[in-house]
């Protein structure tokens, strides 16, 4: 990693040097070590905050309400959920008037990052269709059987402790697949492969306006500052206090924030929430200081750490499920397996630092989810511990931690 | 959640402390599952002197409850309602003696969840009565059956006994109310019979023979079931949740026996006593967690662990004894006493779950879910 990064840093410095000297004939005045991050995620210009990520907060809220509709048996239809997913400004889709008034929606940002999908419209469309399918299958397969006890090949209810889960014919909960898949396809993809992308941060004259402190029209932030904050918003957009979000990390949403918090509870990874936040903060300070090497180094840290969160949590749920199956409680494993299914799916949106690729490709991910659902004739009903271990190992092999480390909170 | 973090820190500190004192302490045994303690004798004592007699006694009460229900349904009157209520209370109290044994058939049919999930959903019950279409085997109906649903049906429908009886006599849908009430009592009796018959027809021997010291062995499984019950159903369900330990405000609507009200304390005391009795191997003190710990000569902070645990049971019992019979009253007037009771129960959770399981070399087989 250091070996690969070093040349990048040197190259980056050269580029930067030539830029600045072209413009004002001054030597480089900014040294990486001179970028000082503030104690909290607080950035101001002329005494007012420059931090803004309303659009991300809106989309997280939309996703949260969409998810709640998956088991609202008395009120939801395929059309009503699909309308929320692909919301149109002014349509009365949500219970929250602000969301209804918004011109944003969730679906258009699914698999929509600059780096992965700007020249891959087919891939993007396929993934969007997968999410459409989770909605329609929930309505068409699970809703009619909501008062049926599920069996192999029969959708319906299963008991998970004192909770009731609703599964398809293979034991999969579509709402979990949707939620944990969206955590990758929306949040992770937008953060790692869009807003932290050099192509987005440095688009058009972003460096020039940022260097010269030129805010956007009717705003207090430069475009580059705002792009970075939009990445931040997908992680911390619902935080009780977004300037110090780690105080409530894990409690603020049901998507990335929650699982950064959960993974951070594992003794093997108990600095990951801090690492991610510090990188966001230092990277943002670097933008203010016009130091793009430091900025990009922080983006790489965020890419590595958020990718790890998805892999660790996926393996964690797989291994939780394995323990239940070995205990003889096959159906009690379905909830964890459904969460794992979504996390595994999300691995295709991770980002391996210094590359333009995920840790696992879409093809590799589809192979793993297929192994989980096609081990025997009836999906999770016939899934074996051996297959779960094989899938877990396939994931861990791409990262620098072990299945054992991810599997327990110790 | 923050509370849990604090607790785990506390638990970790305890573990560290226990470890360090074990290093040099004479008479301390290293934890091992391969000791020479007679696990088979303990399992036999559990099955023959505690579990099967408890289910036998409870099955009898459940049958009596069913008969009293039928009597009331055939002839609804204030007198028959009061008789039914007495038998409901008696069997609800006795249920506390079998609730922890979530193993075998009981686990398979979700016995505890189908008999005692509260708060019960009055709206769900009313919906079932109104449309007559329900299946109590569905997991989603656990909050519309069992003792809490009966509580609503015989204590919660009206302010006076006459008003309650009216639902079964002059109400336009009286026959549906009667039918649902009957179904509730019949279901409790049937599920209990299923569990007892399984113990009496082979499961007892399989249970006792499974002496393996592994996660699938009977000792490890029942130890986990017992501690899970003590931690989740007893400590949290009966005390912590209504007292607001896990929420921003108190939740008196979540007490056990919410509609009857004045027996919440009685149910709690019975369940603590049942747990203490099981720990000690029954009234006659056969092979048990206590004798197992004594056999291993488990010492904590210079004192005998089994004695510490028994003392803590007594502290919790005497604290619970000071509470109002009606927990909604206790929470309204002095919730601090509820929290104190919770604390004493929590102390025993740590002793059982951390110290005892470590000494017996048993792994905890459940984790706190992330709640979604």
> Which whole number gives the mean pLDDT of chain B?
91
Radius of gyration of chain B: 22 Å
Beta strands of chain A, count: 4
What is the assembly state of the chains in this entry? Answer: heterodimer
Largest interface: A-B, 23 and 17 residues
Number of strands of chain B: 2
Shape of chain A: globular
Structural descriptors:
heterodimer; A: 410 residues; mainly alpha; two-stranded antiparallel ribbon; 17 helices; disordered N terminus; B: 372 residues; A middle domain of Talin 1; 2 domains; 2 strands
Question: How is this fold's topology laid out?
Answer:
The complex is a heterodimer of chains A (410) and B (372).
Chain A: H1 2-24, E1 44-45, E2 48-49, H2 54-69, H3 78-85, H4 97-101, H5 114-117, H6 121-142, E3 156-160, E4 163-167, H7 174-195, H8 198-201, H9 206-211, H10 223-236, H11 256-264, H12 272-288, H13 292-326, H14 334-346, H15 362-373, H16 385-396, H17 403-407
Antiparallel strand pairs in A: 1-2, 3-4
Helix pairs in contact in A: 2-10, 6-7, 7-10, 7-13, 7-14, 10-12, 11-13, 12-13, 13-14, 13-16, 14-15
Chain B: H1 2-24, H2 39-74, H3 78-95, H4 105-108, H5 111-115, H6 122-131, H7 146-156, H8 161-169, H9 174-209, H10 218-240, H11 264-279, H12 289-296, E1 299-300, E2 303-304, H13 305-321, H14 327-360
Antiparallel strand pairs in B: 1-2
Your description of this structure?
The complex is a heterodimer of chains A (about 400) and B (about 375). With about 400 residues, chain A is mainly alpha-helical. Chain A has two domains: about 5-35, no CATH class; about 35-310, no CATH class. In chain A, about 55% of the residues lie in helices and about 5% in strands. Chain A has helices spanning about 1-25, 55-70, 80-85, 95-100, 115, 120-140, 175-195, 200, 205-210, 225-235, 255-265, 270-290, 290-325, 335-345, 360-375, 385-395, 405; strands spanning about 45, 50, 155-160, 165. Chain A has a two-stranded antiparallel ribbon. In chain A, strands 3-4 form a two-stranded antiparallel sheet. Chain A starts with a helix and ends with a helix. The model of chain A is unreliable at about 1-30 (pLDDT under 50). Chain B has 14 helices and two strands. Chain B folds into two domains: about 1-30 and about 210-370, A middle domain of Talin 1, CATH 1.20.1420; about 35-210, Up-down Bundle (A middle domain of Talin 1). With about 375 residues, chain B is mostly helical. In chain B, α2 (about 40-75) runs antiparallel to α3 (about 80-95) and α11 (about 265-280) packs antiparallel against α13 (about 305-320). A two-stranded antiparallel ribbon of chain B has the order 1-2. The radius of gyration of chain B is 22 Å and the shape is globular. In chain B, β1 and β2 (about 305) form a beta hairpin.
